[in-house]
Specification:
heterodimer, A: 151 residues, mainly alpha, elongated, B: 679 residues, alpha+beta, Phosphorylase Kinase, domain 1, 6-stranded antiparallel beta sheet, 29 helices, 51% helix
Chain lengths: 151, 679
Amino acid sequence: MKPIPMPAARSQMNGRIAIAVILIGGLIVIAASAISYLIFLLLAMLPAATASFLERPGQRQATTSVGTLTMATVIPLILGAIATGSDRDLLRSSTAWTFVAAGAVIGIGIYFALPMIAVWMEDMRASTRLRKMRERQTQLVNDWGAEVTGR
Amino acid sequence: MAFDAPAPPDRSPDRGTGGEVVLNGQYQIFTNEPVASLAGRAVQAFRAIDKRFPTDSFVALVSSGETMPRLETMSALRGLSKPGMLALVAFGPVNWADGKQRLAAIHTAPQGGRFALTTPLKPTQIVEGLLRPMAAALHEIHARGATHRSIRPENLFMREAGATILTVGPCVMTPPGFDQPEIYEPVTSAMADPAARGNGSVKDDMFALGMTALALLLGRRPGSEHDRDTLMIRRLELGSLEAVVERRAVPPEIIDVLHGLTADDESERWTVNALQKWLTGGRPEQPRSYDTAHALTPFEIAGKPVRNARSLAYMLGRQWVEGVRHLRGEALVRWLRDYAPERTAAPMLDSALTERELDAEGEDADALMVTRATMALDPEGPIRFRSAAVHPQGLGPYVYEAMNDPEKRKVASGILRYGLPQRVLDRRMSERRASARKVTRQAINFERLRRWAQSSEPWEGLERCLYDLNLNAPCLSPLTGGRWVAGVEDLINALDAFALTGSKSEPTMDTHLAAFIGARFEAAGDALLTLMKPKDADNDATLGAIRLFAELQQSYGGKPLRGIALWCGTLARRVANEIHHRPTRQRLNAAIDQAVPQGSVASILKIVDVIGLKQRDERGFAAAKSEHMQLTRDIQAVERSAETRRAYARQRGRDNAALLSGAGAVVMSFLTLMLDNGR
């Protein structure tokens, strides 16, 4: 008996439910350790949430960039604090906020820089191709005379 | 070449100093010492010596170039020495004072001077002094396949002072019979123009000898009491001998030989053998005498009464404008029908006059009517067209002479384009006895001449006929620089010298040169056109022209020809410049530049005559053109899509930003752990 293929929307929904379960689970774990850490997490994720608010659904590259890099700083900080007895006050730690800010800035930087780099590279590639084609045309004119242009 | 070619003169030393020119480096000709007794209408005569034996005396005859010399006869008679003739010892072109070349012939000088016809000679003097030595000389001349055609009292000399034997003078510098007064020519050739009498036969020499003997007997030119037309009419109506002397006035001991030699019917006329038989006491067969019929009532034309069809034809030809009037009237036909002795003449004329000349131009229709009438009345006579009378055999020298005379040129062209030589021969009874092969060949030749004369191709026309009819004629083109150009070597040298002057960068030849090359070397028409109009020629024709020069150079022995190579280089560059592919073109031009100074036309030809080169170039050019067009389209497409591409790139950058953030997140996590733990 052949397995019945799962529709894509349903699969996506299951993935989101799984992520939500993990997130809620994670949030419960963090909240159980110290409520201040949960607040720290929510405050740290504000830039990502703002980006998410500004971007259209399905086009949330800024949210992903900023959120991923912010999470990459927040999670080690919270996990480190929990691991050391949950007595570190992250909300008032300038070091922690510096890491969070750096993560958010780098995320924003990547989001803005990469398209520019891609455009620049595309321009370079196009101009190289144009140059080569024009060189070939010049070579043809040199070899066969101006009549080859058909004018 | 058709004759034993004279050696080309060595240019520099030939022109001697102080009125001297040198032939073949051996014979010194003193141009300031003319010999009046041997000069003629188209010939100058000068004293000459053999540099090896300065005591021997010679005379150089130098052609003016207006008439065609008899080069075949020169080749045949060179070295022949008999008491009855002045020996021809050498001939060839010499460098003349005007910078051109002229043909010269060296003869032994007559030490006794020219014979003067002042008083009548006795028959024995004529027999011993003229007939016997002349019989021996003519026997030798005729044995060599040649004819003399210049036997007359004014051309008789004495080899030594006080000699009793007469010697006949030169005969080779002008066309056959050119200087002969009509009376010394048989009636058929006497009616023709001097340059158009044709080679004739050995019997023509016998006639001239007989009439010369009669002149010596009379002490004056026979028939000198009559004007030209009257004398000719008398000859046609009475017979040549009877027209100039009464039979009873001729001493009986010489009447037979005179009668035998001057018979108008060539088949009845004595040969040299018959003369020799008579001289040794034999009795050769006498010509049967025909009573030349003539009407008692004459027909008058241009004030001359004529009494038979032949004399009528003669006068129609002589006065053709008046002849047209008579032919349009009824009197002439009535006279022919009622009085003329030839019963068939009237119907023959009627038939000839009903013919139509569909391609006749302007006045030619009238002239052709006269021509047809004279052909019908006297088919054995010459072609009479307009004011000319031309023997079909004498067309070559006539056309040569006509080249310098616009009127004669028109007449010569008409004779050929209307096919008159073939038409007159078709009417001749004598020609019907000739072999079918000869008749066919002759018809083909005349048809070819007719086509050329009608042709509008620049390398054909009358010039092509000239060189076809005169196999030894020199090229009359000014491009030869006045050189005597008769064969490959002469032509190549003349053209090379001319090209080296640099006055023409490419061979823009005139009609004469193209016709000469066409006639002598069977060159293709398009190659000749290239030589005349290089700018109008296509590649194949241009290559044909270069190939022609290459073949000429090879047949000349491959000697370097820098001048002609310059010309061919220009032609070859024309071909090379037709190649689109510039590197190939440059390579070809560089190779041509390298080959030209070597003077090898074959090398130049090899550079540009590459099989398939042009086709490959055309294919390559078409492909390049197509590629260029495609590239233009591609460039435009790239330029037009710039904004779209950038938008895609931007979007791709954003998409990649999310991926890169993932990688950055790993790095950031480690950094956070490391740096935060460190505090």
